[in-house]
Amino acid sequence: MEKILLEINALTCGYGNKIVLNGINLTVNEGEIIGIIGPNGSGKTTLIRALTKLIKPVKGEILLERRNIWEMDYKQLSRKVSVVSQQIESVSMSVEDFVLLGRLPYYKRFQFIEAKEDIAIAYRCMELTDTITFRDRSMEEMSGGERQLVFIAKALAQEPKLLLLDEPTSHLDITHQIKVLDMVKRLNRDFHLTVIMVLHDLNLAGEYSQRLAMFNNGQVYKTGTPEEVLQYQAIEDVYKTIVVVEKNPISNKPFVLIVPEEARRNSKGKNKFDKFLRGL
Asked: Is the distance from CB of 29 to CB of 211 less than 8 angstroms?
């Protein structure tokens, strides 16, 4: 039987007087990878901020292992939830020292330097993310893709039960996009790590997520498997653009094709497009 790790019940929150999320309900089971998708401004990043106590709910609750996260102090929460934000900035320190920052929630009172156990865990996380070979390099010397892997290594050093990824593939080329998401999938499979990741790319979301939650106007529009959510009617309704949804011939996951305006105007293209809509 699946065990529930996270419950979001009737969550309403925002910034000041502006409500961004309104009545969000979502359940996450242990060991799941859930992709959060939706157009800009639909509340995806706001959800991540609410899950990390950066935004306090106006209504509703967030339960982690049946406990309201607002009953936990930040140290307790950081031992269970780690986050990699979409802004991956360089810092002036070595990769090893940066990854060791992930061990801060475990420091004892008056502990100012890492223990042997902290170093061992940091090294293990660098090995898992293929960053161990440049542990002595400065973060400022890293490429965007390498830096993203280091940030994930730091998040793993917190030994979380839930990993939150906010646009983990933004600004990365296709090689590093696949490397990052393959690694996330491997961590989920090998260590039963629960992952919630916000993605703009619908094809990557469908390929790497076990379940999707499509957001629209601050609400959950639809949840389900990638096959259930990535249907052209739903995408066109939410994103206000015409698409065709096919299957990846290798993975059989849904693959979203855009239909440019010029192709729609073109008579030959229009005939092909009409055939798609008729399911021929």
From this structure: no
